[in-house]
């Protein structure tokens, strides 16, 4: 059985598990009234009709990814016949496991946030500082784990330029990357099917990159998550029957960031994650410009009609399907550029 056949089977099984699990989870969330509270000031007014749509659907792809990634790895290991007496031969598995645990930990943070919102029947979950504190702890644990299992370099790899050893400053910088990027992915979850579709594309790009870099074990995770996202989209494309919630988006944020950091190709991570980065950047630009103009003119002004930027496109007349397709194609284009730079530099 070839490496790519194993990967396709992993993706297919994850797709089936995620898709089928929705048959049970969506009615269950309806029954226990785990509906998403909607604040119209956080999005276009017509999003109010989505009030009560079941949330925490991220469990669909979280469960499918974890199960199939680990099972797929052991099938792969049996087929290639790696030396089980060599402890370092397990390091690729431990790095993949570190990404899984890291993603699950962020998913747990998201679940606590979702559960708090649903319990209170409003959008007031964890405070920003509570989230950041928990994310810092999980991020530090992840960086310590991948360092222990072989990623000891403290150089930034931007393809055309590799930095000198940064020492402890490298880990401080990577903590900032973790906080920014995981929350950027979370912000991308504002239109039916958007976050799942963009992440599906990102995982396919990462699969190719892992193969190029010889990190075949990590493809078990990327393909499992790609299949899981596709299965979840059966329930999440417009009109969504279920939302992933912070449970899902925080898991995806950690997954994208974790795979990128394990590959230790920072330019590649930047390009693959550019859609998420722009989403968060649009919020930062909008807030900063509003505060500056309010201080200067006495009233705040805006650059975008609404942020994150996918809401700007919504307010400009784009359908949710068109936004999903446009953002996904953009992600693929920049991802392919990342593959090209990986091959060329």
Provide an overview of this structure.
- This protein has 345 residues and is mainly α.
- The protein has twelve helices and no strands.
- Helix 3 (91-120) runs parallel beside helix 7 (216-236) and helix 4 (128-148) crosses helix 5 (168-188).
- It has one domain (3-266).
- It is 71% helix and 0% strand.
- The mean pLDDT is 92.
- It starts with a helix and ends with a helix.
- The chain has helices at residues 3-31, 59-80, 91-120, 128-148, 168-188, 194-212, 216-236, 245-263, 266-272, 274-297, 309-315, 320-344.
Short recap of the structure:
The protein is mostly helical. Helices cover 71% and strands 0% of the residues.
Mean pLDDT: 92
Number of DSSP strand runs: 0
Dominant shape = globular
| Assembly annotation | single chain
Low-confidence stretches: none
Number of helices: 12
The residue fraction in helices comes out at: over 70%
Q: Give me the strand/helix succession.
A: HHHHHHHHHHHH
Termini separation? 32 Å
Q: What is the SS-derived class?
A: mainly alpha
The number of domains is: 1
Largest sheet geometry: none
Percent strand? under 5%
How big is the Rg?
20 Å
Label this structure with key terms:
345 residues, mainly alpha, 12 helices, 0% strand
Set out the fold topology.
Blueprint: H1 3-31, H2 59-80, H3 91-120, H4 128-148, H5 168-188, H6 194-212, H7 216-236, H8 245-263, H9 266-272, H10 274-297, H11 309-315, H12 320-344
